[in-house]
Amino acid sequence: MVRKNGLWKLTQLRALMKNVQVEDMKEKGIHALIVNGEDAHQSEYSTEHDERRCFVSGFRGSYGTVIVTPDSALLWTDGRYFTQALSELDPPEAWTLMREGLLDTPTTAMWLTSNLPPKSVVGADANLISYNEWARLHSSLTAAGHSLIALPENLVDKVWADQQPAPTANVVLPQLIQYSGEKAGVKVNLCREAMLENDATVLVITALDSIAYLLNWRGSDILFNPVFFAYVILTIKDVHIFIDKSRLSQEALEQLKDEGVDPIFHPYEDIHLFMEEIVYSATEQDKIWVSNNSSYALHADCGEVKKHTDITPLSIMKSIKNPVEIAGMKAAHVRDSVALVKYFAWLEDKIKNTDERITEISGATQLEKFRQEQDLFVGLSFTTISSVGPHGAIIHYSPTPASDVPITDKELYLCDSGAQYKDGTTDVTRTLHFGEPTSFERECFTRVFKGQCRLSTMVFPLKTKGNYLDTLARESLWSVGLNYLHGTGHGVGSYLNVHEEPIGISWKPYPDDPGLESGMFLSNEPGYYEDGKFGIRLENIELVVPAKTPYNYKDRGFLTFETVTLVPIQTSLLDVSLLTNKEIEYLNNYHARCLGILRTFLQGAENTQALQWLERQTLPISG
Questions:
Q1: How far is CA 381 from the centre of its chain?
Q2: From residue 292, how far is each of 130, 205, 230, 272, 298 by CA, in Å?
Q3: More exposed terminus of the chain, fewer Cβ within 10 Å: N or C?
């Protein structure tokens, strides 16, 4: 078997690029190939079958775009992955890292238009690129005299050949009404109401978390994400589900029928054929609702039929949790916080009082064991980021046997982790030092905390977009010339994806953000990173709730946040002289909540260590 190293893959790919037959053009070949890591549903995380970007480049991060030309290979990714990409690109001398978000880094479209020869042809798999991205590239390339074409076959898959992992197709289970809080039939009817309001006769649903939410089903096709591969098409009368029916548990089938949905099933692969049938039978009055975040291939299937291209109603429905989901999310975070308190207490004892060697990996393994003890635990919500010292500066670091190092009292330890429970999804980050941090580490930690506190206590008008709140978390860092190169917050699903669109808090706008409303859950996670030295991040999950204000300008309604994460902030890492009285009061009140709620769950001799640690960590501080 040929060893498919990085250089061999690029050589094979370039050979295939030369032989692509371009329709309506005399000469063969394309001048550039675009490769991303998405599947046909534009999922953030991919199965091994869909990790084409990783196969080509070696880069394992969850975000990025690859462009290959006859003499160049480039990877665009954002600040979460700069350090990681430099260590993973294969071979490093063949690749150029394009640091997205920096002022001197051109976009993919800008680079292509500036570096390709005249009248070049750029190719991509239209199933794996959203309509939004395709339209942006097409506009820029066409204006510069180039062409963007949909390739008849995926060139990466041809190079990968029989070594490409098979698609996953795991069993689909029901999400019980005691956790979902709303029957699938009700959700279908709400979608149809939205269709009527927008004069749409067909609604195409491609996002996997939206499909799982709509049907009250859960799966495990993508690691850490309780989703399954399927498409759903709603008409005013029918529900069409595209999936291998043999994957469905009897319980899932029975629950869907009991909840008022009697679907028509189709093979998963028939989605494009069915779209063609819809288009063929469409009248001048028909309109197909297909989000611009869906693949360009599905949009191309629509032909000349009228389209409605907003995000689907499900995107907003799943973001605004109902009372049952809110209660479940809160309960999940209480149990999750118990697991984290037990872990940090155990870890501190091992480091300070024993000679046992605890590493990034063994620590993460122990944390998962504590989570497994909790009721309704299903699995992790992402790979635990257990990172010591310089590894903490790799924002999405994942320890491997080759990189694994001991957790000691000499360096900062950053732990970003989360879990999937049947009643909710968690994501929490804490940074600790079990010895004596430097004064600069204390200052950075304190300024990160100040940013988290500032955002958490903010009062803002209903429907404020998350992008407008981002600077609050950065203000203290900015004031001394520091910053971080990732967003401040993301939406969180209810036993769904840990990163849930369309809401978020970031320096760059979320184009489909409908504005914040009561019932939404977001993360609050400012940080600071010194390459080669340390990383600091503090992350809580916040519930958007109504704010009590003395006035209500034009009856707009005002909102604030309620923190549902209940894990202490390490006060010994703070430079208290930098804190205001309001920040000290906030922290003391937060720690009182942590102690008051978690104490009940830490009774018994087996929890003595954790309870004593919690009591020490939540002692009030003063200025």
A1: 10
A2: 7, 11, 18, 17, 10
A3: N
| pTM listed for this prediction | 0.95
d(CA 239, CA 36): 31
| Residue 479 CB neighbours (<10 A) | 10
Answer whether residue 554 shows pLDDT above 90. no
Phi and psi, residue 416, nearest 5°: -115, 115
Could you tell me which residues come within 8 angstroms of residue 137 by beta carbon, excluding any fewer than 6 positions away?
Answer: 34, 108, 109, 112, 122, 124, 129, 148
Closest to 336 measured CA to CA, from 543, 564, 494, 539 = 564
Half-sphere exposure of 299 (CA within 13 A, CB side): 23
Name the one residue in this structure whose structure tokens are 């309509």.
131
Question: What is the end-to-end Cα distance of the chain in Å, rounded?
Answer: 67
566: Cβ contacts below 8 Å, ≥ 6 apart: 333, 334, 337, 593, 594, 597, 598
> CA separation (Å) from 190 to 162, 195, 310, 321, 455?
44, 9, 16, 15, 33
Question: In angstroms, what CA-CA distances link 371 with 274, 328, 334, 357, 490?
Answer: 44, 16, 11, 21, 23
Residues with Cβ within 8 Å of 48's Cβ and at least 6 positions away in sequence, in order, are 165
Cβ(210)–Cβ(227) under 8 Å?
no
State yes or no: cis peptide before 91, omega within 30 of 0: yes
Which helix (H) or strand (E) segment holds residue 238: the answer is none
Rounded (5°) CA angle 480-388-64 = 75
429 and 498 Cβ atoms separated by less than 8 Å: no
DSSP, collapsed to helix, strand or coil, labels residue 170 as: coil
Beta strand 419-421 pairing with 377-380: antiparallel
CB 394 within 8 A of CB 306: no
Q: How many CB atoms lie within 10 A of CB 330?
A: 18
Q: How far apart are alpha carbons 451 and 433 in whole angstroms?
A: 20
Position 28 scores a pLDDT of: 86
Q: What's the mean pLDDT in 252-277?
A: 98
List, for residues 326-362, the tens digit of each pLDDT value. 999 999 999 999 999 999 999 999 999 999 999 999 9
Show the tokens assigned to 466: 């998350």
pLDDT tens digits for 152-204? Answer: 999 999 999 999 999 999 999 999 999 999 999 999 999 999 999 999 999 99
Q: Which residues of 110-139 are buried (b: 16+ CB within 10 A; e: fewer)?
A: ebbbebbeeebbbbbbbbbbbbbbbeebbe
Angle (nearest 5°) at CA 464 between 463 and 469: 155
Displacement of CA 84 from its chain's centroid (Å): 18
The answer to whether residues 450 and 527 touch, using CB atoms and an 8 Å cutoff, is no
Q: Which tokens hold the place of 535?
A: 């990383």
Single out the residue of 213, 270, 223, 209 nearest to residue 50, CA to CA. Answer: 223
For 419, the token pair is: 């879990």
- Cβ(360)–Cβ(404) under 8 Å? yes
Torsion angle defined by CA atoms of residues 381, 387, 391 and 393, in that order, rounded to the nearest 10 degrees: 70
